[in-house]
Design a protein that fits this description.
- With 219 residues, the protein is an alpha+beta fold.
- The chain has one domain.
- Strands 1, 2, 3, 4, 5, 6, 7, 8, 9, 10, 11 and 12 form a twelve-stranded antiparallel beta sheet that branches.
- Helix 1 packs antiparallel against helix 3.
- The two termini are 15 Å apart.
Length: 219
């Protein structure tokens, strides 16, 4: 009985655990540097945070994007808004669960979307108007084969996820660039790796079996 219980616990493999990663956006392409448009500048705060989590069942990921309240230069009192989020990953279906709404045409692109310094992306997550203003959030899903938090964050270490901030003013708000500034995400940070619901059930069954077996041996 002990062997059987241990076998049940052992069957809860690492593949049954759901990963969750966070990415902060602090570094942007310094458009104010006329002689070097690819010069970057890093803030001491994050303008936005992206959390990428595995969906239950392993058929995709959830993206939770929070646009933080911050002091980055804005063109007007309305503040900045997130215009687009670009990332690279396998094809799939885009869903908008809650928060800011997506613009028409948002989704997977079979033709690579080439942005600053040659980064090529396959997902264009374009938000409607100024719906993702400071303090607002959006929760999206990407579903399809090969889409997982681990896969997307591994790719992001080579092709950083990029965020376009709109309604930018001050030194960086160049009208010729549509008053937008592009930020690149920092290194993904693993926040949690928790068992999926079915794994909890298996673990519980295994632990109950171990307790029962120990009591029988002690009797």
């Amino acid at each position: 009985m002990v062997a059987a219980a241990l076998a049940v616990l052992g069957s809860v493999s690492s593949s049954a655990w759901a990963d969750s990663y966070t990415i902060d956006f602090k570094t942007f392409f310094n458009t104010a540097t006329a002689d070097n448009p690819f010069d970057t500048k890093t803030l001491n705060y994050s303008v936005a945070k992206l959390t990428i989590s595995d969906l239950a069942g392993g058929n995709g990921v959830q993206l939770a994007l929070q646009h933080n309240s911050h002091t980055f230069a804005a063109l007007s009192s309305a503040g900045n808004f997130v215009d687009v989020l670009w990332l690279k990953g396998p094809s799939g279906t885009l869903g908008n669960l809650s928060g800011a709404s997506l613009a028409a045409g948002a989704g997977y692109s079979a033709t690579p979307i080439v942005k600053d310094i040659g980064y090529a992306y396959t997902w264009n997550l374009d938000f409607a108007g100024s719906s993702l203003a400071e303090g607002q959030s959006a929760v999206l899903t990407l579903t399809g084969a090969g889409l997982s938090a681990a896969t997307l964050t591994t790719i992001a270490q080579q092709t950083p996820i990029m965020l376009s901030l709109g309604n930018v003013g001050g030194t960086y708000g160049l009208a010729a660039l549509g008053n937008t500034v592009n930020f690149v995400g920092g290194a993904p940070v693993l926040v949690t790796a928790v068992p999926e619901p079915a794994s909890y059930a298996l673990m519980g069954l295994g632990l109950v079996g171990l307790v029962w077996a120990r009591r029988r041996q002690a009797a």
